[in-house]
Amino acid sequence: MLARVAWGYVDSASDHDDLMQEILLALWRALPRFRGESSERTFALRVAHNRGITFAVRRRRFERLPDDGQLTDPAPLAEERVIDEQRRERLFHGIRQLPEAQRQAVMLRLEGLSQREIAAVQGTSETNVGVRLTRARHALRTLLGEETA
Hints:
Layout: H1 2-7, H2 13-30, H3 40-61, H4 79-97, H5 100-110, H6 115-122, H7 126-148
Helix pairs in contact: 2-3, 3-6, 4-7, 5-7, 6-7
């Protein structure tokens, strides 16, 4: 669950590992402040998203040149698996292009949270979460449609 949240904020395996380490450390430090007002899952996701936002902002300040190549598994993969991975990467790339509140709502929805739970994590109303998810879907359709055209 937390690993998927981290992928919503980064696009490289090394950044993902760094962010996961930061998330787990932040969660460990935040545990004494858990008051039980929400579920443990909601609490952990809130901490993970907060750490993801901080990580992404910090990375933007020190943007690096893009990698020329991608690390790939040296073992040959089945064509279906490669296509699925490409689709998943395109989707996460699209999600990373969304405004912060929409990206967070989408990532939480992908984790299986209800609109009520997402509202609790984001500190907003269920109606607002619905609007964010709808806008995010439209934006993703546009972003992903443009890539294939």
